[in-house]
Give the backbone structure.
Amino acid sequence: MKRRDFLAATAAAALPLACRPKHAFPFPGELVGPNLALGHWLRGGAFPEPERFEPIATLIVGGGVAGLSAAWRLAGGGLDDFTVLELETEPGGTSRSGHNHVSAFPWAAHYLPVPDRGNHAVLRLLKECGVLEGFDAKGEPVFAEEATVRAPEERIFAHGQWWEGLYLRAGASSEDERQYHAFFHEVDRWAAFKDRRGRPAFSIPRSRCSDAPEARALDQLTFAAWLDQRGLGSPRLRWLLDYACRDDYGSRLETTSAWAGLFYFAARKQGPGEDSRPLLTWPQGNGFLVDHLRRANGDRLRCGVAATAIRPDGDSLLVTAWDAVSQRRLGWRARRVIFAGPQHVAKHVVEGLAVARPAMARIHNAPWLVANLTLRSRPKESTFPLAWDNVLRDSEALGYVAATHQSLRDYGPTVLTWYRPFTGPDCEAERARLRALDWPACARLVMDDLRPAHPDLEGLVTRLDVMRWGHAMVRPAPGQIWDPALLALAWPFGAVHFAHTELSGLALFEEAQDHGVRAAEEVLAALGRRGESWR
Amino acid sequence: MDEATQPTLKAPLLFLSVLLIASCGLIYELVAGTLSSYLLGDSVTQFSTVIGVYLSAMGLGSYLSKFLQRGLARRFVDLELAVALVGGFSAPILFQAFAHTHAFRVVLYGVVASVGTLVGLEIPILMRILKDQIRFKDLVAGVLTLDYIGALFASLLFPLLFMPKLGLVRTSLLFGLLNAAVGLWSTHLLVTQLGPTRMLRLRCLAVMAILAVGLAFAGKFTLAVEEEIFADEIVYAKDSDYQRIVLTRGRGSFQLFLNGNLQFSSADEYRYHEALVHPAFSVKPDARRVLICGGGDGLAVREVLKHPSVQEVVLVDLDPAMTDMARRQPMVRALNGAALEDPRVRVVNADAMVWLQETAAAPFDLALVDFPDPNTYALGKLYTARFYRLLQRRLTADAIIAVQSTSPLMARESFWCITATMESAGLKVRPYHLAVPSFGVWGFALASKRDFAVPTRVLPGLRHLSDEATAAMFAFPKDMDRVPVEVNRLDNQVLVHLYAREWRRWS
């Protein structure tokens, strides 16, 4: 026993005598944003008019990846007269990150599969960030070694120990193995699919995907039903695929479109029969990309400012906003607006939108709980060592990512980012559950989840902070992906253009970026600055 | 039987037990002094403080003896058993405390003070037991004479016989057994003063049994489960925050193990370290600033400092417990010639890859990379293309690098994987090898950003390398020749898998 352990044990033994409240944890922490209160207050508000409306070419509402990417594209197109408004104090949306004395860490989205050579916008961004180093002799992009996920990438906790990989091979029957290969054979078949115009069935972003009827038919049934039709009932395989649905969509096999379920695997294939694309990641997750976009936008980004109303006035738009920092009303007269927030906000802000586009009510966002645990040292273990992604099989949560893995730190303090999607069928009910959780309840949820794998964790945590995401990711339920009314939500509404990942029905960095770039290019064209597309 | 005859019968035998307990008492002191010198270094300080604490504790014991009033014979037997347990187990307790706690000194002086106090009680009590049976002048003369002679026996036999044959742990347990035997024997000698002796004798037998079991399983239960893998006696064992460090000694040499893997044997490490260091200096004879990654034992530094051009050496080793041992442990310190104390040497305790990534320093002319073999992911990262790229950023344009790269015979693909990885990072690489008997055939890679010729001249006066032997190392016979292998990258860590597969054949 180390002296520290001894002191901790002594302190733990002495604390109950000091009337420690039941279930209290020996470490501090807090609930951090997003600003639920301000968000909900805006929804109800009738706001007085600002004193003046400042003229501006373009106003971008929302400083998440879609809004920042739109700004990045506008600036790249030579347009300087724009401002980005972000409700939160930090930009980035669900790609936000934080940092402390131990490490930077993600608050949600934390990786990107390496883009293929046709994903021009992502390649352009990665080149700017120094992550794309060039192209090899075959024309394939080459990425910086330090940005590709360091091995070991994944491990899974089952039967009281850690195993390499995400699919539990130990104890798998020959039938399990057969079904595993049968599934990936299907994935390969879809990875090889090309329609008459040469478009693949699955590609990132989804705007490059084929709309051929046989691909679209996959959107008509659940992933579970699709597996049932093929006799794929292996519990291990179903666990793996259910995990994928929870991880990428916040939904389950039974509530996810089969198109989306296959997209997860087929769109990441380098080619039929080949491995999945490697992943790019950083200690702060996709916050690395947000930091770059933020720097690129400089002082045109204004945080803590919420747009409260957007209405047409002649051939321009009047935008009113509330600056929560200075507690002032603000107004702009904009020629164009890119609304880069979610539709459930747009319906309160953009005048007339809710009536004109009732389909928006069919978008559902899953709530998530994300916790960052700062540890003074690593838990003691003896089986497969700490990986980047660490998954507990028998858990409602998704496990945790070690922030120090990518910064090459294998010893000493670390930060673990723990993810828990709320996957119940009714998003509204799940959101109510999430809102009811205070910090002690959240901390208990996290610690109870991790205790089977790390019995010594409680003594190692120095801080546990929690982010409650009410609308973390759009759920691709059957019928959502190819619904014409939902696809039409991306079209301009007068002079208001829309950019958001939920317009793809898939919550991915690349989708947000694609919509941001598209919306910006629509604006550039409308303002007479037509140029070559970055998409 | 009258009162005058009985003592004359047994007194000489009681004097013999004085001889034995005196020997035991000194042995415990020597064990504590030797053990703390091994573990902490600086034997003058260790022996001085151990002797000081021990003798003053004996004084305390002697003083306390006056508070013991009745049943002295019984007390004496109990006292022997207490000394047997505390003294007998002192070496295993101290090794464990050093290996597993941060409070070694507290335990050391606590054990020394306890044994000293108990031993200090022995002679006064024995003298009081005998005072009515022997004339005082004979008693004092006899007891003290044998006390000092016993000390002589112990001090001669300890270094000549017990340490070399039994080692510290078994010696301390053996003398504990002897103390308990004196206790048992006393129940016979002092039978008239003891009253019922059955329980007392059973107690003695129980303590002897415990010590005998300790002696029988000395290796297993005192140090570690893996003791069986070590052929020789463990003289130093420490669980640091990063690894288990073990030194063993036997057959005229000593060995360092990290997590059970041999790092060097003092018998032939000169071959390894000469090969690691001097070929690089042949290519870059005027190297002034030298970087050493790993190599916390200080043996590579010893070789580096033979080159007069060297002005500064930065040694980056993960584990402060390792570099502290290299500075203090007498055997290691003697072997590296106190190289880490040299004013030209700066020791940094950090993960070399994180250090290369995150700290800035003036560029180096020569770098030696001397990590343990890549048998974990944490070690495997130190052999990736990214590592060699980070390393190059910290070197001058014509700097030279030497990398230990495992055995080209036993782990042929691993060896060539390291070469291929270095090449993929833009280096010109010239691999070489030599025989290190305790390891087998061992390989290295010499590399630079610019092309360079195979070295043919080497510093004169080395033990193994000559000009001819240096040039010969760069030729690879057929069974070790190059094989095509994948490059080791952070995102695949192929080397860890290759290495595990290849070495499995040999274990």
